Amino acid sequence: MPSERTTDDRLASGHPAPAATAAPKTLAAREDFPLLATSQNGRRLAYLDSAATAQKPAVVLSAIDDYFRRYNANVHRGVYRIAAEATDRYEAARHAAAELVGADPRGTVFTRNATEAINLVAYSWARHELAPGDEVVLTVLEHHSNIVPWQLVCAERGAKLRYLPLREDGTVALDALDELLASGRVRLVAVTHVSNVLGTILPVAEIARRARAAGALTLVDGAQAVPHMPVDVAAIGADFYVWTGHKALGPTGIGLLHAAPELLERMPPFLGGGHMIKRVELDRSTFNDPPWKFEAGTSPIAEAIGLHAAIDYLRALDLARVREHERELTRYALARLAELPFVHVPGPPADERAGVVSFTLDGVHPHDVAEICDRHAVCVRAGHHCAQPLMRELGVTATTRASFHVYNDASDVDRLCEALVAAHELFTR
Ligand SMILES: Cc1ncc(COP(=O)(O)O)c(C=O)c1O
Predict the structure, then answer these.
(1) Does 366 reside within a domain?
(2) Is the pTM for the entire model greater than 0.85?
(3) For the chain, which terminal residue's Cβ has fewer other Cβ atoms within 10 angstroms, N or C?
(4) What's 333's domain CATH number?
């Protein structure tokens, strides 16, 4: 359970909030996150890189520690007490992950990360289903992990990739989707739920509805959505929904694929090995039922247990409140950045974006911006953010990105703005 908020360090910044915009507080207590108690150059860390990976609350670290100290054993095979406990807790984590997003636990597969979940669909479903001339539709907003697997599998199967373009405001035009679907050749529409660069929230339920009406399947990449807002996989109606644990306050090394068990049943295995079989002969094997059919080898046991603790923590905060908190903080950030005439922020307004704000500065390279931020103990990311096609579309090679989570507040944004002013002065004076 998140503890009570015990600090309010909005006053730590030299920049008071603009009068017109309320200064949001943290939603979770920073004290719940051990790393956020550390300081750099005498200042507490302003961590604004949660789109890359989120900080972990102590309850997640304790759950992992408890597993290794108290009941470390492999799952599914042992009959002894600690092995049964490990298995129970691993499977309980699956149920918790499924429940978080309204999915069927029998169709909830643990992978290493979101990237592996997408590759699972590419290599198991698409590699067998796509025929020459078929089409896969993506958007130009996609993370490389939702582009490259499709490039590989389309090249192998003689299928074609098509892209939905970006509108001026960083959103995606659905009439362009209708035009592509009208060809009758589209077999899969694979789109991000939330852009990791612009924060754009895509209308994924409507995209899935239109794709289905045209006979195509849909994959939604929820890596930047599940950690930040209520997600109902059943209501979205996509055939495949993927996300990743480490952005959801959980550990690295665990991702999720949700699909209907019947669809997974029809798909061939992705990786072969232990755990995923029923019976192995010298020349052939029969496979386990989903989801275990797609979980070859020793499972990410500690990771699943840590993720379960993260899910409980997020649910106790209430994901609707998480979304509201990040919307407020994004609104505040957009207002503060708008006061700096040398800063340019592409993308939609706060109501249509998650807590992700990318920007460029006149006369300062994004990497230099990030480095000056680091001197101010402000952690932001600079580069192409694994979205090179989007960078080209925006006409830049890189941006600097600030992204928010439950432990951020207005003072973090104020600290960012302070650092941006310093960077601009240093490089342009
Ligand atoms: C939108 C999006 N999709 C997919 C991924 C890949 O996540 P992972 O590296 O955990 O597989 C990321 C990571 O940044 C992302 O932002």
Answers:
(1) yes
(2) yes
(3) C
(4) 3.90.1150.10
